[in-house]
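Tutorial sheet, problem 5. The two components below are modelled jointly, 444 residues in total.
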Amino acid sequence: MADRPSFIALSRRNTRRSWGLLAATVVLLWLIIVAVGVLGFGSSFVPSVIVSLVIAVGYLLFAQRAAGRTALRMAGAHPAVGDEFLTLRNVVEEMAIAAGLPVPEVWVIDDAAPNAFAAGYRPEKAMVAVTTGLLSSLSRAELKGVIAHEMAHIRNRDIAVTTISVVSVSAIMLLADLLIRIGLYSSAGRRSRSNERGATIPLALIGFAILIVGLPLAIVLRAALSRSRESLADATAVELTRNPSGIRSALEKLEADTREIRRIGAGMNSMWIESPADKAHGPTKFFAGLTDTHPPIAERIEILRAMEGLPAGERGPNDAFPAPSGPVQPF
Amino acid sequence: MISARSVASGASTPAAAAAAEGPLTAALGRLFAVAEAYPDLKADANFRQLQEELTSTENRIGYARQHYNDSTTAYNTRLQSFPTLIVARAGSFTERELFDAPVSAESVPNVEF
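Model answer (C-alpha cells):
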C-alpha cells in the first residue's frame, strides 16, 4: 500500500516535465530564428525577426480564441439541452465545482465512437464536448472520470499550452519554407553579382537544415508535451473525483472500442481524451511512439490501476469504488 | 427536513455547518427509504429525474466541501513552507479550519432503487 503513486506526486512530476518541454520548444524556435539571423542575414535580420514574432503572437491569440468554436463546428456538435442530457450536465457541473471553475458549455456530438474533448483557452470560456457513443457506453462514475479529465485540461490551461507548441511548430515550418523559397528565387540573380556577402550561407541551405533537423525535433517536442499534459490530466481527474476506478474503467472501455470518430479535423488530435490518430498503429513502434499525442492507453490504465492498488495486467471491476483505506478517499 | 435545512444554511463556521448538515442528510435518506416501498414511484420518469437531481446535489455538496478542504490544505501548507511563510508571517495570515463532515454525512443516502 505504501508505494501506491499518489495523484499529487504524479501532478508535480508532469507539471515539471511539461514546463521543461514547453521551454525547450520555445528555445528551439528562438535558436532557429537567431541562427537564421546570424548565418543568413547578419544583424539586418533583427527587424524581420521582430515582425515575425509579432505575427506569431497575433496568430497565437487568434488561434486560441477561434479554436474552440472551430473544433465544435468541425465535429458537428450541438448544445446538450433536454432531459436526456440531464446526467451529463449534472456531471459537468459537479466536476466544475470540484475543480473550482465556472461551468463550461456542454456540447454533444452525434457519433457512435466514444470520445470527448475540451476546448477554450480560458476557464471562463471553456467548452466540453462528448459523443453520444460515450454517453451510451459509460456509467455515471465512468462519465464523471472522463469529464474530470476534460475539466483537468481546462484547469491546467492545456489548450493555451498546446497552442503555443503547435504555433511554434508551424512557425518553424513557415520559416524553413520561406528561406528555401527566398534562397532558390534569389540565387539565380545573385550569382551574376558575384558574392557581396562572402560569409553568408545560402538561405536555401539553412532552410533545408531547419526542415531536416529543427522541424522533426519540434514535432517530437510537441508530441511529448501533449503526452505529458494527458498524464497530468489523468492525475488531476483522480484528484477531482477521488476515484481512480471511474476514469480507469472508462479508458478500458475506450481501449476495447475500436470505432473511430468520423469527423475530425487535422490538428485536433491532441484534444480528444483518446487520440483518434494514435489508434492507427501498434503501441510498440518506436518512431510512431515519438509523435503520438497521447501516452499509450494501456500505460495510462496501468498508472491508474497502480493508484487503486490493483495488481497489474488483469481487468479490474468496472465501476467499483476503491477500498476505503489508503491515500485515495472515495466520495 | 425544512427545519434541518434552515439550521444548516444559517451556520457561520465550517464546524457548525458540518454539524448542522448531518440531520439534513439523514432526512434526505429517510425520503428515499419511504420511496423504496412504492414500486410505481421508482419506475416513474419524474421520480428518476428527481433521483438524479438529488444524487447530483449530494455530489455537489461533497465536491464543494472537497474543493474547500483542498484549497484550505494548500493554503495552510504554504503558510508553513518556505519562501511563502515569510509573507505569511509579515502579513499575519492565520491557518484556516478544515470542513470536517460528520460520518453520517459521508454516507450518501440510498438512491439505488
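Marking note: Residues 2-106 of chain B form one domain. Full credit if you identified this.
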